[in-house]
Design a protein that fits this description.
Largest sheet of chain B: 5 strands, parallel
Structural class of chain B: alpha/beta
Radius of gyration of chain C: 20 Å
Strand content of chain B: 15-25%
Oligomer: heterotrimer
Number of domains of chain C: 2
Number of helices of chain C: 13
Order of helices and strands of chain B: EHEHEEEHEHEHEEEEHHHEE
Helix content of chain C: 40-55%
Shape of chain C: globular
Chains: A alpha+beta, B alpha/beta, C alpha/beta
Helix content of chain B: 40-55%
Largest interface: A-B, 56 and 46 residues
Strand content of chain C: 15-25%
């Protein structure tokens, strides 16, 4: 599986990117609006000032007269500490004010309308508002232009302050948005995680379809997942069926051969022929047993990888295993002596049963007739211990550990049908459960003692 | 005892029937689940031997469907040896299972164990002169005295009672008594016969040695 | 070397004095070479304590102090006269200097601590708030009720023309910047101003350039009443001449309060010292109690009556009456009222 980056991270980054974009956008918009608002405020005041001056224009004795209303300038000083300049021109002649004010003389504004312009004066940028009125002087009307100007430092200051505030707000918005993005990404991915957890919580063989409420976007995934599980389940069933069919096809004829051979054996008188028939039967037994153990081993390997963990009482397990082997033991008049106390462990009951069964099966197989097999289950120093002690020939002189190697059999097992996989399977199961298999020969040199050791639950 | 064998393989079925009849049991053979249903409808059985894979269905399905009203114990014959299958068969109501190919001795032992466990089945005691032999309980009664035999002694008694007055060679007895995975010598037969003789001594039954041929069971018919 | 410097300084001053109508001038030599040149409308006796205090802290700095009229000060700075600090009580003229770009901006902790209304654009800084008052001669008004409002003053003048004929003094607003500021602000604020002016005009009023001379004439009995005198000067005189002749009266219907302001002209060279002087003046302006200083602080808490009126606002509106057209119109009206011959 190749991981191509986290969706959550990508989603968060994407949302954060959008948030950053919006932050910058809102900041620049607020800044622009702040400039506009500050400018408009100044323009409005300038226009009001110029208009109130223009309203005092009148003609008196052939001269243009006017007086600057006190309010015309006090309103300019009311909102900011800007420097104020003004002039009043009758045609091109200065009536009063600052003569060098750079009033645009190109096109005087239409009478009554306020025009604005921005210019440089005495080292500062200024904003000017001009109003023109026609005043009748002598023979004809004279256009009189009133211009009021203010420096623009305050506009820049106000706009700058607002812009800075907007910047702080934008950054705060961005931070909050990123936090919310991370939260939103996690929240929207939660159903996905929940489905993943629901799938991973399942046992190794649980291939039922997922039945849980999922957002519409995940429905295709759920459907595909369920379809995949269905196909997987079918495929597993098919292969199981195939194995079962194959085993059936092979083993049933073997059983037939064996049964026929046994029947023939009863009617044959010649001892040589009897021996040959016995060899046939033994060969059949051996091959079927090998096949069975190979299958068991594969099953154990598979199940050990996907270990089921459920509480199991080792004593109960031992009792059931012993019961199933009872008839086989009885054939040899072997007594399985139970000495158990309840010991809880955690694990796969099928595997544990298989392990114990292999060990017990071995004991029954190698024990002489009319002997006793002791099966003991005890909790011992935080460990659960199931011990199978027989009165058979022991484990031989070879290293005990080597017995559990695959296909190895004890050196003194002549005449006993076995594939050598029994102890290997048992050990694999125990290792998968965090336990171990202990092998020892009784100190009197008679009998093997095999312990299955598991961590207590 | 009356057995129902449900097995589609004709040769195997024949051999099993043959063998069980040799032991004195009555065996009906059904080659499919449908046939098994027919048999169960007309007769009652002490034990059913049920193959798992049948042409018209899965034996385990049959088991789950009939378990509720079927009181007859069932031993499942399976080709699979997987642990899960064994457990599955037991969970679905089988009393025991045995893996193909199987040893007849083991099959007998398991049948006996199941029958003994179920208990309710009719006793089929065998009269041997003045003594009575119960192979299921493994007891031999003579007047007020009852002795319990060990497993191999019971098997030996069974073989002799099925063939009264007939000479059975050591080799024949060996094949009936022991499974083939154990290397047993003919001396073992002598040991078991000796033991059985001591148990039945004075109970109107005896085992005679026919030199060079084998053994024969005689009853005091007088 | 030092003598040479002094000689050059003196000759420079001489040329300046030629151009300026200097009313008074004094040099306070320091121990170093630096020289702080102050041009001011404040009389020497009023401002000297401040200069001494400044020099006590910085003995190395010489101070050259020139007293001129407010109009003269304004004209000189506009024409580029070289001073390091301009101190004037004519707020309108000071404001115009700042507005028209003849001031340098200055900022310090002291100026920052001034209230908003006491500074404008870090260019001009107020350090006193001084009311306009009426100064009476106790002797010449004996037996007459003391007026508290302009209406009462008008009634008094009307009822006793014989007592006040030729004995009423006020600023000649054509000459005095401060007088013009008082008159215009008062005309704007109360309609009693023009009625009072007309009443005064019928009494052959004496017109003055400066508060000091008016106070002199009242204290010497030549005048019965001087209208619109700078209160701080009157108070200072009251302290000096304690013969009880002077009576200071603050009109309760309305009283102008002007701010004495300082500005660093663009021509200044000793900017650092000028800034230090502004810092000192601003700190003194913020003191709580008047103390022994000759000029009042910005907040006059001890002064109960008339405190309802704030000082004239530092703002572009001050320039309205400086406009030539407005000034001509105002002076026309004023002359009509005051000079009824």
């Amino acid at each position: 599986m190749t991981a191509t980056g986290s969706i959550g991270r990508r989603l968060t980054l994407l949302l954060a990117g959008v948030a950053a974009l919006l932050s910058v956008l809102s900041w620049s918009m607020v800044t622009g609006l702040a400039w506009q608002a500050a400018e408009r405020t100044q323009d409005n005041v300038l226009a009001a000032s110029a208009t109130s001056i223009a309203e005092t224009l009148r003609s008196e004795q052939g001269e243009v007269r006017l007086e600057l209303p006190y309010s015309a300038f006090s309103m300019l000083g009311a909102i900011s500490e800007e420097r104020v300049f003004y002039n009043v021109m009758a045609g091109s002649a200065l009536l009063t004010g600052y003569e060098d004010l750079p009033v645009s003389t190109l096109a005087p504004p239409a009478p009554g309308r306020v025009s604005f312009s921005t210019s440089e004066y005495r080292g500062s940028q200024i904003r000017m508002a001009s109003v023109t009125r026609l005043v009748l002087v002598g023979t004809g009307p004279v256009p009189v232009t009133v211009t009021v100007a203010q420096t623009r430092g305050g506009v820049a200051t106000i706009a700058g302050d607002l812009s800075q505030l907007a910047a702080i707000l934008s950054v705060a918005f961005f931070v909050v948005a990123v936090a919310l993005s991370a939260f939103a990404a996690r929240a929207s991915l939660r159903p996905l995680n929940e489905i993943a957890q629901a799938v991973s919580r399942r046992g190794p063989s649980d291939l039922r379809p997922l039945r849980r409420a999922a957002p519409a976007e995940l429905a295709p995934l759920m459907t595909s997942l369920n379809r995949l599980m269905d196909r997987l389940g079918q495929s597993i069933r098919r292969s199981e069926d195939f194995i079962a069919e194959a085993a059936h096809r092979v083993r049933t004829p073997l059983a037939t051969v064996r049964a026929q051979a046994e029947i023939v054996l009863r009617s044959v008188r010649d001892e040589d022929e009897k021996q040959r028939l016995r060899r046939i039967i033994r060969a059949v037994d051996e091959s079927s047993r090998s096949a069975g153990q190979l299958l068991d081993h594969a099953t154990v390997a598979y199940r050990a990888e996907h270990l089921v963990r459920e509480p199991v009482d080792l004593a109960d397990l031992a009792a059931r295993t012993a019961a199933s082997l009872g008839p086989t033991a009885a054939m040899k008049d072997i007594l399985i002596q139970m000495d158990t106390e309840p010991v809880p462990v955690v694990g796969d009951p099928v595997l544990l049963n298989n392990a114990l069964r292999n060990v017990l099966d071995n004991a029954v197989k190698y024990s002489p007739a009319e002997t006793t097999i002791a099966l003991r289950v005890r909790a011992d120093h935080g460990e659960a211990r199931a011990t199978v002690a027989d009165e058979g020939p022991g484990l031989g002189d070879g290293p005990a550990e080597a017995l559990t190697e695959r296909f190895r059999r004890g050196s003194n097992t002549e005449g006993v049908v076995g594939s050598g996989l029994g102890l290997t399977i048992a050990e694999d199961v125990l290792l998968a459960h965090g336990g171990r298999l202990e092998l020892e020969t009784d100190h009197h040199g008679r009998g093997a003692c095999v312990s299955l050791v598991l961590p207590s639950a | 005892m009356r057995y129902l064998l449900v097995e589609d393989n004709r040769e195997l079925a024949e051999a099993v029937v043959n063998r069980l009849e040799l032991d004195g049991h009555a065996v009906d053979h059904a080659a499919s689940l449908a046939e098994a249903e027919d048999c169960l409808a007309v007769a009652s059985y002490d034990l059913i031997l049920l193959d798992v894979m049948l042409p018209d269905g899965d034996g385990r399905t049959f088991l789950t469907q009939n378990r509720a009203h079927l009181e007859t114990p069932v031993i499942v014959l399976t080709a699979r040896s997987q642990v899960s299958d064994r457990v599955g068969a037991l969970d679905q109501g089988a009393d025991d299972y045995i893996t193909k190919p199987f040893d007849f001795s083991e099959l007998e032992a398991r049948c006996r164990a199941v029958l003994r466990r179920r208990g309710g089945a009719a006793r089929n005691e065998i009269a041997l002169g003045q003594a009575v032999f119960d192979p299921l309980a493994g007891t031999l009664s003579h007047r007020s005295e009852t002795i319990t035999l060990r497993n191999r002694e019971i098997r030996l008694m069974e073989v002799f009672t099925r063939h009264p007055g007939q000479i059975l060679s050591k080799s024949q007895l060996m094949d009936r008594l022991f499974s083939y995975d154990a290397e047993v010598t003919e001396n073992a037969i002598e040991v078991y016969v000796g033991r059985l003789r001591r148990h039945i001594d004075g109970k109107g039954v005896r085992i005679e040695t026919v030199r060079g041929l084998g053994y024969r069971m005689e009853t005091d018919d007088a | 070397m030092r003598l040479a410097c002094l000689a050059i300084g003196l000759s420079l001053l001489a040329t300046l004095a030629m151009a300026l109508e200097v009313e008074d001038h004094r040099l306070y030599p320091g121990t170093g070479d630096r020289m702080l040149r102050i041009v001011s409308t404040a009389d020497l006796e009023v401002f000297e304590p401040y200069l001494r205090a400044f020099q006590a802290e910085r003995p190395a700095i010489s101070i050259d102090y020139t007293v001129v009229s407010s109009a003269e000060l304004h004209r000189a700075i506009r024409n580029g006269a070289e001073f390091d600090l301009a101190v004037s009580s004519a707020m309108d003229l000071q404001f115009q200097l700042a507005n028209d770009g003849f001031g340098q901006s200055y900022r310090s902790d002291s100026t920052e601590s001034l209230p908003e209304w006491a500074r404008w654009r870090d260019l001009i800084f107020a350090f006193t708030a001084e009311p306009a008052v009426v100064v009476l001669s106790a002797e010449r008004l004996a037996g007459l009720p003391v007026p508290a409002t302009r209406q009462e003053l008008i009634t008094l003048l009307r009822q006793h023309p014989e007592r006040f004929q030729g004995a009423v003094g006020t600023y000649d607003v054509r000459d005095s910047g401060l007088g013009y500021l008082f008159a215009t602000q008062e005309a704007r604020s109360t309609d009693a101003y023009w009625r009072l002016s007309e009443v005064m005009g019928r009494l052959n009023p004496q017109l003055y350039c400066c508060s000091g001379q008016m106070i002199d004439d009242v204290s010497e009995g030549r005048l019965a009443l001087a209208y619109n005198v700078l209160g701080s000067y009157a108070a200072e005189r009251l302290v000096r001449d304690s013969d009880g002749q002077l009576q200071i009266l603050r009109m309760q219907d309305f009283a102008n309060v002007i701010l004495r302001t300082a500005l660093i002209p663009t021509t200044a060279r000793e900017i650092e010292s000028a800034g230090e002087m502004i810092d000192m003046l601003a700190t003194l302006g913020l003191r709580d109690a008047p103390g022994s200083w000759t000029l009042p602080p910005l907040r006059q808490t001890g002064d109960g009556e008339g405190s309802g009126f704030g000082p004239i606002r530092l703002g572009p509106a001050l320039m309205v009456y400086l406009d030539p057209l407005n000034r001509r119109a105002f002076l026309d009206e004023w002359e009509n009222a005051l000079e009824q011959r």
